[in-house]
Amino acid sequence: MDGAPDTQPTRADAQREAVIRVRGLTNRFGPQVVHENLDLDVWRGEVLGVVGGSGTGKSVLLRSIVGLNKPAAGSIEVLGVDVLHGSDADRRRIEKSWGVAFQYGALFSSLTVLQNVMAPMREHLKLSKGLMRALGELKISLVGLPLSSCNKFPSELSGGMRKRAALARALALDPEIVFLDEPTAGLDPIGAAAYDDLIGELQRALGLTVFMVTHDLDSLYAICDRVAVLAEKRVLVEGPIEKMATVDHPWVQEYFTGPRARAASNKGRGS
Length: 271
Ligand SMILES: Nc1ncnc2c1ncn2[C@@H]1O[C@H](COP(=O)(O)OP(=O)(O)OP(=O)(O)O)[C@@H](O)[C@H]1O
Hints:
It holds the Pfam family ABC_tran. This is ABC transporter ATP-binding protein. With 271 residues, the protein is of the alpha/beta class. It has 11 helices and 10 strands. The protein has a 6-stranded mixed β-sheet with strand order 6-7-8-3-9-10, sandwiched between helices. Strands 2-1-4-5 form a 4-stranded antiparallel β-sheet, covered by helices on one side. It starts with 10 loop residues before the first helix and ends with a helix. Bound molecules: adenosine-5'-triphosphate (ATP). Residues 29, 34, 52, 54-60 line the site of adenosine-5'-triphosphate. The site of adenosine-5'-triphosphate has 10 residues, from helix 2.
């Protein structure tokens, strides 16, 4: 490994549309530098898996893109809008184009599932209550939750159901891009596989672009079109998962060629 980022644009890249374009991103917390000069493109319609060791800044990257963390330097464009310096109107417009499901759901605990899903509609759309309710129920069905869960509070749901409810809320405004932070963390293997299937199905049916922070090798093999590895404060390497085993870097080697990776790879190929 010569240490150079393996992110040189190819001719195929030039033909794809970057719905997210991150350039020269630097994030610091006091003396700690989390990202330094990080570049990343996310292509329309892909499922991108963002991986890396603990503390490499996967969540900080996600939070920077959706405007919840102010970087020290760099630029971030989502659907052509400058997320860091755009006008308030641009920001509101762009916020309607994405949905975010955080690791622990981050649902409003005092609202029911349906009220949670309706919350972004109340904020961004001028719709009658009846219409919001109908759309909310539709999103709840779409993620495979029974309609009986509409009137439950988050504390009355299982962990897996909470994740689905968070996904329903992320889909509330018919977004083009969905951000998922460790969507299968804490789920049992069957629940995690079912959640992966759901994401894959929704991505295809709705034409979503999915930015997924994950540690889950099964998810990477099952649904990700491309993987971006965060290491050494930047995107060290990106590309199809098959490429990762050839990358000469200790963390990448350990992660992508260990026994868990081999098992996930076999599962992903259906063998
Ligand atoms: N608001 C903050 N204030 C100070 N430090 C922070 C803040 N947010 C994140 N950090 C630090 O930035 C680093 C990257 O955090 P981040 O949560 O992005 O890591 P991660 O790659 O998602 O890790 P994990 O896989 O363990 O979830 C960590 O060292 C974390 O402590």
